[in-house]
Design brief:
The chain is built from four helices and six strands. The N and C termini lie far apart (about 70 Å). It has helices at about 5-10, 15-20, 60-70, 110-135, and strands at about 45-50, 55, 55-60, 70-75, 95-100, 100-105. The strands form two sheets. Strands 1, 4, 5 and 6 form a four-stranded antiparallel β-sheet that branches. It is α+β, with helices and mostly antiparallel strands.
Length: about 160
Amino acid sequence: MSEENVEKAGSSRKPRSASSRNTTSQRKPWTPPQVLETPPEPEGMQYRWIRTAIRGEEDKTNVHRRLREGFEPVHPSEVEGFSLPVIDEGRNAGTVGHGGLMLTKIPKETARERNAYYAQQTENQMSAVDNDLMKDEHPSMPISRERKSKVSFGASSGK
């Protein structure tokens, strides 16, 4: 039955489309724009911003080290559909960058291996510190190596 037929028959029913819930989305609150907006990562890759300059001076050492680790600069043609700033001058001209930073990509597998390596380095350093500390321990005054933290919210009542 059409709307006209419903109204002529004396029925007070309205079409379902007129009484459905509001389908417009709510307005999002204002937030400051992200300076380092990063587009979605391609399959199997991970993006990371690396430092190319500090206090106006080029940081060639950092860039070369990151490139040797497996990071590759991202070119604007790789992120079509996004309006990202491009480095205009210097060695990294033509790549995505902003304010002394350059967007790079690395295979996720390589990033996991790199993270595992540095986690192992940290563990080795903590073990060395513990061993050095325990070397000076006296039996009458033991040193506790407990590394736990506890977060509590609000006051607990002892009633």
